[in-house]
Structure formats: C-alpha cells, structure tokens
Amino acid sequence: MILTESDIRSLCDAMNANYVFYHRRHEAGELLISNRSTDRRFLTASVIKVPLLLVWTVLESAGDISSDEICDLADEPIVRGAGFAHQMRCKRLPFADVLLMMIATSDNYCTNAVISKIGFDRINAVFKEELGLQDTRLGRKLMSKPDMPSGKDNWTTARDLIRCYDVIQDFSTEEKKFVLDRLRACEANDLFLRDIPEITKPFYHKTGGLTNVVNEWGFTETRDLFLIVNDFKNELIVRETFGKLGRAILTELI
Predict the structure, then answer these.
(1) What are 3-40's pLDDT values in tens digits?
(2) Which end of the chain has the least Cβ crowding within 10 Å, N or C?
(3) Long-range contacts formed by 80-85: CB under 8 A, 24+ apart
C-alpha cells in the first residue's frame, strides 16, 4: 500500500489528537505533517531515553564517564512501570548494561540510575549546548509526578527529534555503534511494527507511552520516521494508525 501525503494527513487527523509525523528518505526529501506549530512542545514519555542515550555517548567520548563503570542499582529508589531490573538479585552491573535495558525494555529503574549518574543540570546543558536540542528538557525522573507548568516534565519538539537523527549520523563509527546496538535491541513492536509480522532488517527505534501519550521514534538504513501523539481520545485508533503507517512505509524491513 502506497500512502500519499493526503492519505497520511487524513490518517493522522482521524486520531483526534495533537500530533507530529515525520518521514525522511535519506537523500530523497522529507515530509513533516502536524496539526500544531513546528515549535510545539510534546510530552516524550520514554522517547526521552533517546536523547539521554546521546548525552551519555557524548560524555563518554569526552572521558567524563564510562559505560564500563559499575552501577549499583541498590542506590536508586525502585520504580516499576517498565523493565525488570527491580526484580534482579544482582544489582551491580556495568552502565553499558544499564543503558541497554534503558532502551531494550524501557527500564525506568535503570533510566533513573543513569539520570542520577549524570544529573539533571548537566543533561539539559548537553541537550542544548552539545547536541543542539534547543527545546528538549528532562525535568523529572521516570515514574515521578509531572508538573508541566513548573518544568517538572519531559518534553521535546519536532525540530529536536529531527536533530537527533543528524547527531547520530555525525557520531564517530565507535559512537554510532554504541547507540545503534542499543536502539536495535528495543523489544517494543506494538506501534509501527504491529502490522509487520516479521522483519529481517534492523529498525533502530524507541517507543514511549503514558495515559495521554503514544510515541515512536526510529530509523532504518534508508529512512527516518517518527510519530508523536499527545492528548488523544481513543488509544485503539492511535495504535491502528501507527500500524498502518508502519506497514506502508517500512516494507523494506520484511
């Protein structure tokens, strides 16, 4: 099935939500469709873990931190919601594995340990000053109570999500491998991949969801693709939309 720009807009509008959709074929043009302004702040849910992974990569390359360092998860208050690290008997493991679980199983407990290691101020400074993410913010740990007006929430914009693709492409071979190894391990397949029964080629991606948020950001070797959806009325329609878009656009993975 080939979808036109009009088809995609109709599908997205039918979600009755705030959304931004982006698709870029490498070296062949891009498409951005949204029913909100281009500088609209969208809640990220777990998609914030992508720029967080990029922050770690930059700081490790600078020699400020090391993924070989042992993280003691016992030092971090237990949270649930995603992942299984809180159930593990062994709580001491390299940050490389903590970061892997942060992406692969969207482990919130592991994510919060990474946040504690780096710190909010430094994370947000690297977002803006080193990654060029002008309006992406980490304002709270995962599973903590949000308060958007006071800045205690996690958000981004379409411009910054597009910038994340370019950041990864500009990484060194070693840096890129570190990031791709983790994004390829993401186990979530219930959004763009929900109508693709089997894939043989890699899709590097991260999903995120809250009661009013369903997001997915990802890319293949030939294209970039994300759909960020906030404030919807019917989650089933939203998920069906992800499936239709994924099936139409990611046929190269079959």
Answers:
(1) 899 999 999 999 999 999 999 998 788 999 999 998 89
(2) N
(3) 80/108, 80/109, 80/143, 81/108, 81/142, 81/143, 82/46, 82/106, 82/107, 82/108, 83/107, 83/108, 83/109, 83/110, 85/109, 85/110
Q: Tell me the residue type at 224.
A: D
Query: Which pTM does this prediction carry?
Result: 0.96
